[in-house]
Amino acid sequence: ELPPINGDFYELHMKLTEEQRAIQLQVREFMEKEAKPLVNRYWLTDDFPHELIPKFKKLNLCGVTYEGYGCPNLPFLMEGVIAMEIARVDASLATFFGVQSGLSMGSIYMCGSEEQKQKYLPGMQQFDLIGAFGLTEPEVGSGAAGGLTTTCKKVDGGWILNGQKKWIGNATFADVIIIWARDLDDNQVKGFIVEKDTPGFEVEKIKGKMALRIVQNGLITMKDCFVADSQKMEHANSFKDTAKVLQMTRAGVAWMATGCARGAYESALEYTRKRKQFGKPIASFQLVQGHLVEMLSNLTAMQTLVFRLSEMQDADILKDEHASLAKVFCSLRTRDVVAQAREVMGGNGILLEHDVARFVADAEAIYSYEGTKEINSLIVGRSITGMSAFV
Ligand code: FAD
Predict the structure, then answer these.
(1) What pLDDT, in 10s, does the model give residues 180-217?
(2) Ligand 1 lined by 174 (C-beta under 6 Å)
(3) Mutate to test the pocket of ligand 1, among 100, 101, 104, 136 (most ligand atoms within 8 A of CB)
(4) Are strands 158-169 and 217-228 parallel, antiparallel or unpaired?
(5) Separation of 373 CA from ligand 1 center, angstroms?
(6) Long-range contacts from 333-336, C-beta under 8 angstroms, 24+ separation
(7) Which residues cross the membrane (predicted)?
(8) How far is the CA of 145 from the centre of ligand 1 (A)?
(9) Portion of the chain with pLDDT greater than 90, in percent
């Protein structure tokens, strides 16, 4: 009798209440039963499994931490645990959920007026409205804080938006798209809620991605796109407001990376216990066990870190640098874990049907989005040295 496969080696789930643990297991069951049978097929065809949306809706966990508007009002710890559980099976679906629940709903929740929250959040919570978040541009990624070229200009009754946004997750089928643009009058970054059929607003699917292929990323073009005053987010008046949203979502990405590593480790462990060479399971070889233990060490360090990260979020003491450190550490370690998982699976490690190949590819996108290693390191560096090395 072999021991159970368990990527939670230090039993961190014991930090959860009974109710929270039940939610974790509910998400795990949903992902295993409903999502897992679909993901490789959709990954291959570069499509989104729309049939999962009503099932996500049934889970009723979207807008995890928000109060009101039909949201569950759970602690940040649960936002992390949910992200980890989704990513443990598929990082694309975790990204889809993160864009909906975190980036787009979070922008409205943190920066919108009460009227805007009432108008959009209940529908988004139910996935009746799909959200997207447009910050990055074709020529401006890491330098978004000072370098946005998308502009907004105040006119009678509203604003005119011009520019492009690249990589925007969910954008090809989103109903509500958050757009960050620089005000031509005061040079500050402002945030807008743009509805999909607004004249002058177009989305083109980005094709040919080799990572997170299930998430649909769009290139948005805005040409003299008019939005009414009611669509300008009341409290989104400088990049500091954008950064508040990013702090929350970066913490979520650290959890997502951890989930991806956990999925890869567990798949690899299972495989090595079954696969035989030289008449013995390869898991019985010392060098293979060395890989497995190294993976588990990284995974355990990541999990311990993100549990503490969320405790800090729940205690309202989390700063940008804490979220950035976790994002850097977890996305870096995940790259190592998935690479070792692939390695111990030999040739089968590059076959989609064994899942780990998908984790290897997806880890590359997680590594780069929501701030690259360099940008998040510079945020931590500025905090510990008191010196900014950005420019
Ligand atoms: P660049 O900024 O061009 O960076 C290239 C390299 O230069 C990196 O290694 C970077 O670290 C390095 N570099 C840049 N500046 C410095 C510096 N000062 N010092 C040292 N090194 C530096 N954006 C959204 O707005 N919404 C989304 O929904 C979204 N989803 C995404 C999904 C995917 C799959 C991907 C890949 C990206 C997504 N993004 C999204 C964009 C993402 O946030 C950017 O790709 C990321 O911020 C990096 O920007 P960039 O790709 O333009 O790289």
Answers:
(1) 999 999 999 999 999 999 999 999 999 999 999 999 99
(2) no
(3) 136
(4) antiparallel
(5) 10
(6) 333/257, 333/261, 333/298, 333/299, 333/301, 333/302, 334/257, 334/258, 334/260, 334/261, 334/298, 334/302, 334/363, 334/366, 334/367, 335/363, 335/364, 335/367, 336/294, 336/295, 336/298
(7) none
(8) 12
(9) 98
